[in-house]
Write a structure and sequence with these properties.
Length: about 450
């Protein structure tokens, strides 16, 4: 099993793209909107804002292109969001498109769930996204780290009026009418901005890239595997094309439910050994075993936290809106979050554009952003409850067994994947009983 230091890295870290990343020295003194974080949420927000004619500065602590630990799977919500951003064709020209996800249950039963799916390493996807924000008129300054918000006294308490940013030991202030915080699942920036309600992540996951060009039966779709040897989680194998596979395991955090843990409590995941879990994945799943044994590592294994179920953070405060995984926008159960990050980035941008057009005050903007995010909560709640499948993997046996008996059930699973349906069949004893006894 490779480690960060020992694994061969076949693909050298790409040099920063010339002309894309502006240095600290060129940072303006002020802008209309400062977007912090150039992942899917931040870049989507910056693109939509810049397209609407706002003066946008986008900053990230890393110069682009940069890697992001992810499974790289693009599910239907990501396709829809990319379409809305006018970027779907460009992304799909580089992505590996597949038309189904294979769900594998503990007893080995499997079902192919049709869907509009693709895999594209985040190094490439996020470069396309932040370049698109820049093409729309946003200025990307990177590497530049958000240190803390600038605040001024307002009629109802402090208002965020920009941020302190740092690079190479130097610090600068940038005044902005509004700040969008899209800093992902690592909570430091959230905490510095006074928006963190819970430091503990909702889960953690580990992934690496393996190349194997001579597999006897290469997977034709995304493969997701539940098994009692992968407790509270699952394993995945996502084909990137040309014999490259993103392989990983993820586990939900059993102790971080909702916002009941103190903001600064330790994350409590020290006992999770994802490397051992990945080794177990290789033992229980033949394809994972072949890849781990015979494949050539193209990157070190890397782990990262996830924040799910719209929990763990405040959504907004005067002068500042939160977007993407910093909000907890990733779905529990599946850990899919690219589409939801893009969506919430667009939502934040839309609110800011509306605020400017309608002349909203800060309190109205905060309330409208919170309403827009809260409208997503019921769906997140169902996914949160459906996480019971990770804790009781025999339920995956039941779901797969039942789906194999009924084309309608496969259509329902497909509906869950593209969000025309909810995973409500996974959340109550009554629904499991129905799976057991009904054939339709
Ligand atoms: C192992 C793993 C596998 C996953 N697999 C999938 C998958 O297959 N499909 C899927 O849809 N989702 C998947 N996810 C979830 C997905 O990665 C996230 O939901 C998504 O990246 C969230 O996007 P974001 O823009 O909110 O945050 P991010 O993509 O994390 O982007 C945040 C950006 O903010 C920057 N930043 C952070 N702090 C600062 C700071 N202080 N100053 C400046 N910049 C800062 C970071 O450098 C980063 O570029 C996976 C996650 C993990 C950990």
């Amino acid at each position: 099993m490779p480690t960060e230091s020992s694994a061969p890295v076949a693909r050298p870290p790409a040099a920063a793209e010339p002309g894309l990343n502006r240095p600290l020295a060129e940072l303006p003194a002020a802008c209309e909107v400062l977007v912090v974080g150039a992942g899917p949420a931040g870049s989507a927000a910056a693109r939509v804002l810049a397209q609407a004619g706002l003066d946008v500065v986008l900053v990230d602590q890393h110069a682009f292109p940069r890697d992001k630990v992810c499974g790289d799977g693009l599910i239907p919500d990501a396709h829809r969001a990319l379409e809305r951003l006018g970027l779907l064709d460009e992304v799909m020209a580089q992505a590996h498109a597949v038309d189904h996800m294979t769900a594998v249950a503990p007893r080995g039963g499997r079902v192919d769930v049709p869907g509009r799916l693709a895999v594209l390493p985040r190094r490439i996807l996020d470069l396309i996204l932040c370049r698109a924000a820049v093409e729309a008129g946003a200025r990307l300054h990177a590497p530049l780290r958000f240190v803390a918000p600038l605040e001024e006294a307002g009629p109802h308490g402090p208002v965020v009026v920009g941020a302190r940013l740092s690079a190479g030991g130097q610090e600068r202030s940038l005044r902005a009418r509004h700040v969008v915080l899209a800093t992902g699942a690592v909570p430091q920036a959230l905490r510095a901005a006074g928006m963190c309600l819970r430091r503990a992540p909702s889960g953690v996951a580990l992934r690496g890239y393996l190349r194997h060009r001579t597999l006897a039966a290469p997977p034709s779709g995304l493969v997701v595997v539940w098994h009692r040897r992968l407790p509270n989680g699952y394993g995945w194998i996502f084909p990137c094309g040309d014999g490259l596979y993103n392989i990983g395991v993820g586990v939900e955090h059993r102790h971080a439910r909702r916002d009941d843990a103190a903001a600064d409590a330790p994350d409590g995941m020290g006992d999770v050994n994802l490397r051992a879990m990945l080794e177990d994945f290789g033992r229980i799943h033949p394809l994972a075993g072949t890849l781990l044994r015979d494949g050539a590592w193209e990157s070190p294994l890397k782990g990262a936290p996830l924040r799910c179920s719209l929990s763990g953070a405040r959504y907004a405060r005067p002068g500042l809106l939160v977007a993407g995984e910093a909000l907890g926008s990733t779905y529990a159960l599946t850990g899919e979050g690219i589409g939801k990050a893009l969506e919430t980035g667009v939502l934040a941008a839309d609110r800011l554009i509306e605020a400017r057009r309608a002349g909203w005050d800060e309190a109205t903007l905060v309330a409208r952003h919170a309403e827009a995010i809260a409208a997503l909560q019921p769906r997140h709640d169902v996914y949160e409850r459906a996480c019971i499948v990770n804790r009781r993997p025999w339920l995956a046996d039941l779901v797969v067994w039942s789906a194999r008996r009924s084309p309608r059930r496969i259509r329902r699973l497909s509906g869950i994947l593209d969000e025309t349906d909810l995973p409500s069949e996974l959340v109550s004893w009554r629904s499991w009983l129905r799976l057991l006894v009904r054939r339709d």
